[in-house]
Amino acid sequence: MLLGVLMGVVAGLVVVIAAWALLVTPLTAQPGATPTPKPTVTVTKSPTPSRTPSPAPTPTPTVTPTPTPTATTPAPGVVTSLPAGSWITVLDSMAKSRFSAEQALARAAEFSRNGVTATVVDADAIPNFNRGFWAVSVIGHASRADANAVCGTLGLSVGNNCYARQVGG
Questions:
Q1: What is the DSSP string of 28-58?
Q2: Distance CA 164, CA 90 (A)
């Protein structure tokens, strides 16, 4: 019986030591993190003392410029800004993953008739618009009613394929 108690105590100590070893390891070390080297200054003493001490050289940090992202240049004819609060008539929404700006502009030309000039709006550039689409639209309306009236002018009914949308701000 004494041997069983002794073996239990030894097993308990092994568990406690293992747990302690895991908890004591530094928590600040992160795998894959590269420590930032700190500049060091090496001071060498001259064999003979000088009357005027010279200051130790100060290391100059090297600055690596961070590349700045460049805005992509919009395709000619694509609208990338609209006045907040204005209304547009959306005639078609074309996914950028499937259609180029040129294809969207060609679609806008198909809608340009009866005194209506359709254009392409880059929805990524307009607040509150659905990202990832070209919005084939008629822009510059002061009200929802004015924007919806374009649908009738083009022989379309107001609904899923022709609707008014207000520009957010």
A1: S--TTPPPPPPP-------SS--SSPPPPPP
A2: 6
Structure tokens at 141: 């309306």
d(CA 45, CA 127) in angstroms, rounded, equals: 65
Residue labelled with tokens 């894959």? 32
Determine if the pTM surpasses 0.70. Answer: no
Residue keyed to tokens 């929802």: 144
CA angle 131, 137, 138 (to 5 degrees): 145
Within 8 A by CB and 6+ apart from 49, the residues are: none
Nearest C-alpha neighbor of 164 from the set 152, 114, 57, 19: 152
Q: What is the DSSP letter of 118?
A: -
Please tell me the total number of residues recorded for the chain in this structure: 169
Q: Which domains does the chain have, with CATH numbers?
A: 78-166 (3.30.70.1070)
For residue range 73-82, list pLDDT tens digits in order: 667 889 999 9
Instruction: State the amino acid at position 33 in one-letter form.
Output: A
